[in-house]
What we know:
Elements: E1 5-6, H1 17-29, H2 39-58, E2 70-74, H3 77-91, E3 97-101, H4 106-117, E4 121-125, H5 134-139, E5 149-154, H6 167-171, E6 175-176, E7 179-186, E8 205-208, E9 220-224, H7 249-264, H8 266-290, E10 296-297, E11 308-312, H9 318-327, E12 330-331, H10 347-351, H11 356-361, E13 362-366, H12 373-383, H13 396-400
Parallel strand pairs: 1-12, 3-4, 3-5, 5-7, 7-8
Antiparallel strand pairs: 2-9, 6-7, 8-9, 10-11, 11-13
Amino acid sequence: xxxxxxxxxxxxxxxxxEVATAIAESQGLAHANPSSQHALGRAARRVLEDxxxxxxxxxxxxxxxxxxxxxxxxxxxxxxNHLALLGxxxxxxxxxxxxxSRRDHPSSVNAALVAGRRGWRLQELSLDAAGTAGTAIVxxxxxxxxxxxxxxxxxxCGQTGSIEDLSAIAARPSAAGRYPRLVHIDATQAAGxxxxxxxxxxxxxxxxxxxxxxxxxxxxxxxxGGGVAIEPVQAGPQEHGLRGGTEAVPLAVGFARAxxxxxxxxxxxxxxxxxxxxxxxxxxxxxxxxxxIPAVVIAAAARRCPHISTIAFPGLDRQALAMAADLAGxxxxxxxxxxxxxxxxxxxxxxxxxxxxxxxxxxxxSVGRTTTESDIDLAVERLxxxxxDPKSDPHRQRRFGCDA
Length: 404
């Protein structure tokens, strides 16, 4: 087996060495339970709250005043999405409507469906050609709403990398008639490479996880705007009473250090990563076109986050291609990691109204801060033989499940 080239940074990124060091140091300084009242517990609490404040600051939240924003540590972004949507519906005195789209992560979609089973009306937002739902959510605004609206939006689509346009939403009032509209923003794919200013966003809540930008796995966060009512899903005295369980102080420290490092070089990293993505796309498209495969980058004309590219190779099967790539030493994906085991096509691509042959043949490739130009070139070199001229390869139909 050749050494693997990681083109799946959208699923997880390597931990930054400084993050690993910070975690190791905190394990010695703050090993006690931060809920304990003794000296060691108070020391751990100080380290935890310091990490919390640093993260809130990096996200543009307000950490002071009566209406200060709250950060709840969770096990990851999936739990944060779940807490946001179900927590806000549970806190509402009136049953209303939950808006979501198929660009949302499965955890958000599943939370919306749970709310539906609890009596909330569900409104699935349509996606445009760029795979965004912002226009649809604006169209759903009603001055005569008969209940609150809770909307789920994904800032950067984990499938296509397209960035949601929040400008029109931000320009609208936060209430429709006498009922509020509360917006939850999943910023998981965005936080490492796009500036996040929570105070400037039309968001009641925002979720993210540091393993997407060089931080540890097993921790995430939900930033809750000041004054936003939310009920716990997993009750307990910890985390402002919104999540029971002893906090993982070292992971919180790693979270804080990871986001500080990501913010510090974000502009330079975004530019370099975008260049790597463009290099990968242009070389793969050229190699595919050379053998008559009309490969296409999905949402190529959209405003995209620098690290994600979904490319369709009509005539090939996405799952067979991903397996063949793996055997060739290139790690890519057929969709988001939480749904990659499914044999079903990407809900996002289907909702975009793409042709079936594009949906069936689309794979996701994603690069990151640790990716190099030589990684890109070697990956193209390894992938190109996988779709050479089918006339010279009688086994292609069996290998790729296509009609060659």
